Amino acid sequence: MKLTRASDYAIRGVVYMSMQPEGAIIVIPEVAREMDVPVGFLARIFQSLSRAGIVISHRGKKGGYSMARKPVDVSLCNVIEAVEGDIKLNLCLDGYNACDRMGFCAIRKELETVQEDLIASLQKTNFADLAVEEQAHRDSL
Amino acid sequence: MKLTRASDYAIRGVVYMSMQPEGAIIVIPEVAREMDVPVGFLARIFQSLSRAGIVISHRGKKGGYSMARKPVDVSLCNVIEAVEGDIKLNLCLDGYNACDRMGFCAIRKELETVQEDLIASLQKTNFADLAVEEQAHRDSL
Fold first, then answer.
1. Residue A35 domain-assigned?
2. A 69-88: CB under 8 A from B
């Protein structure tokens, strides 16, 4: 039960974007260098973030990515789900015919509660707060 | 971010064990049949549960497994960690040199909080409650 590497890198990328002035267009190699992420992998991740409406892709000579929403309106949950799909803590929570035991299983009900707690916890953290913290850490070096 | 199949089966196995009278010795094929789990996989999982002090292995003709602790004293967290190892929500939370950014990273701190919430949520559910619910579901069929 672990975040994927793609989610880890996506979070780093959105933290960096959230540290920029509103509307700033940033290129992937800069994000990759600053957040210590492989540039090719990050490019694919930003395509997912763009499809999820978290960043906007700008083409052309001065192209790159900008935030599609205010950082305060983007949660850890949004970014993880943009990359991994909806959070499903167990296979049995993945749709209505995921397991033969679904009709009577006590475990599924409890795991659903744990999953709701987890999602609530991931929704609590927004990228405005993460950006402020990351900047403070950098300034203190 | 999903439980492994082994954790899913381990939870099923411990629910079944928790439904039995205290001290009862149960054989793996019975647990496998009742909880719809492949018997070979379940045998390996019960070895992990035994090492973690959740079940006791009994050898010989009347051998099998019994619970090592009262079901009320075994949490979802205990069983998942017996199979997957300590819950680490992200690679960066896996020890003291897991990531080069550890000295200043804002993300790590937030994910640590989410991880603590998740563990607390998994600790809340014990197998006495799960066994009662599972039995009630079965009786209602």
1. yes
2. 76, 80, 84, 87-88
Q: Is the CB of residue B5 less than 8 Å from the CB of residue A91?
A: yes
pLDDT, position B139: 86
pLDDT at position B83: 96
For residue A96, pLDDT beyond 80: no
d(Cα B74, Cα B68) in Å, to the nearest integer? 10
Mean pLDDT in chain A? 93
Q: Does a structural domain hold residue B100?
A: no
CB contact under 8 A, A89 and B125: no
- Contact call for residues B90 and A2 (beta carbons, < 8 A): yes
Q: Is residue A121 part of a domain?
A: no
Chain A hits for B129, CB-CB cut-off 8 Å, are: 110
What is the per-residue pLDDT for A62?
84
Residue B51 structural domain: 5-85+126-139
SS3 A96: coil
Q: Is the pLDDT of residue A106 over 90?
A: no
Identify whether B79 is part of a domain: yes
Q: What is the pTM of this model?
A: 0.88
Residue B32 sits in a domain whose CATH number is 1.10.10.10
**Residue A89 and residue B2: Cβ atoms within 8 Å?**
yes
Domain total in chain A: 1
Could you report the per-residue pLDDT of B81-111, keeping only the tens digit for each? 999 999 998 888 887 777 878 777 889 889 9
Whether B34 contacts chain A with CB within 8 A: no
SS (H, E, C) B50-93: HHCCCEEEECCCCCEEEECCCHHHCEHHHHHHHHHCCCCCCHHH
| Interchain CB distance below 8 Å, B134 and A107 | yes
